Amino acid sequence: MTDQLDDGCDVVVVGGGAAGLSGALMLARARRSVVVVDAGAPRNAPATGVHGLLAREGVSPAELLARGREEVRGYGGRLVAGEVSAVAREGDGFAVALADGRSVRARRLLVTTGLVDRLPDVPGLRARWGRDVLHCPYCHGWEVRDRAIGVLADGPMAVHQALLFRQWSDDVTLFAHTAPAPTGEQAERLAARGIAVVEGEVTSLVVERDRLVGLRLADGSAVAREALAVAPRVEARAGFLAALGLPVAEHPSGLGEHVPADPTGRTGVPGVWVAGNVTDPAAQVGAAAAAGATAAARINADLVEEDTLRAVAAYRNPFSAAAESRLCELVMGNRRHGL
Ligand SMILES: Cc1cc2nc3c(=O)[nH]c(=O)nc-3n(C[C@H](O)[C@H](O)[C@H](O)COP(=O)(O)OP(=O)(O)OC[C@H]3O[C@@H](n4cnc5c(N)ncnc54)[C@H](O)[C@@H]3O)c2cc1C
C-alpha cells in the first residue's frame, strides 16, 4: 500500500518507524505537505510486543506502526514504500532520490532511519534475536524475570549489563567469551551480586523445541540458560547523509554510531533534522516518538520563519518578481471571470 510520489512537498520524512510517523503526524496536523518514505524494516520487527509504552503496553510492533500510518494518512500525510538512496541540496531545498529511480523535492528533511544491530558472530544467535536473545532489560526484562539468564561479554558494556539484568533475576551468569576477564574491581562487584563468571569462548547456542536451553563452550561443555543478553554494536542507517556533509560519529555512550544533533534534532546541516535511534541509540519507542514530534515542531517553526521572511520581502517591495507574478495571477483570474 503506497501513495503517489508527487514532485515537491514541505517535508520528506525518511523512515516510517515510531520517530518518523510521530514527526509526520505533527507536520500533517500543522497543515504541512509531508511524505514519509519507508523501507519497512523497523528495528524491533523480530519482537512480539512493544513493552514499556504507556497506554499501548504489549502491542505488536506491526500493529503500532499500522495505526500510526492510518493516523498520518487521516491528516493528509502521504506514505510511500521505498528506500532513500541519495539526498542532495537543490536550491533552497533538497532532492531526495529513491533506490527504485523515483525522486521527490522537499524544503526540509526529517531523517528517522534508525540503526542496524551488529550481532555477535555466534552460530544460532541471530535466529533467536528478539525472542530469547535480548539486549534491553527495559524491553524484555519482565518477560525473562526469575529465569536463568546469560550475558555474553563481547564489548565494554557486558559487566554493566550483567549487573542490570540482576535486577530481574538472581540467576545471572556472565560468559567472558572473547572479552578480557573482568578486572579485580569488576569481579568483586559481580561476586557481591551473586553473578557467576564462566571463562571460555561461546561457540553455539543450544536450542530445543524452539527454545534456548543453553550455551555451548569451546571445550564442548554446555551451560544451561533460558535467555541470553548481548550488547550489539549499533550502526546508524545514514550513509546517504554524508553527501550533504553530515557524516556519522561515535556516540558518547560507546554503543556505536549516531548522527549528532542538538536536543531538538537539528543537525549541523541547515534544513536537516534527525530523530529516534539514528541519533539516539538508547531511545525506546516512546522516546523515539517524542523526539520525532519535537523535531517536527521545530521544522514547522523553521518553515513559518521562512514563509514570513518571504512575505515581508514581497510586502516591502510589491513589484518584486514574486509579487508581480501574484498580481498577474489575480489579474488573469479576474479577466477569466469577466471582471
Ligand atoms: C529486538 C528488539 C526489541 C525491542 N523491544 C522494544 C520494546 O519492547 N519497547 C521499546 O520501547 N523499544 C523496543 N526496542 C527498541 C525499538 O526498536 C526502537 O526504540 C525503535 O524502533 C526506534 O524507532 P525509530 O523510528 O528510531 O527506528 P525504527 O523503528 O528502526 O524505524 C526506522 C525505519 O526507517 C526505515 N529506513 C531505514 N533506512 C531507510 C532509507 N534509506 N529509506 C527509507 N526508509 C529507511 C526502516 O526500514 C524502518 O522502517 C526493541 C529493539 C529491538 C532490537
TrEMBL record:
Residues 10-290 form the FAD/NAD(P)-binding domain. Gene3D superfamilies: FAD/NAD(P)-binding domain (3.50.50.60). SUPFAM superfamilies: FAD/NAD(P)-binding domain. Keywords: Flavoprotein, Oxidoreductase. InterPro entries: FAD/NAD-bd_sf, FAD/NAD-binding_dom, Ferredoxin-NADP_redctase_2. Pfam families: Pyr_redox_2. It catalyses: [thioredoxin]-dithiol + NADP(+) = [thioredoxin]-disulfide + NADPH + H(+). This is Thioredoxin reductase.
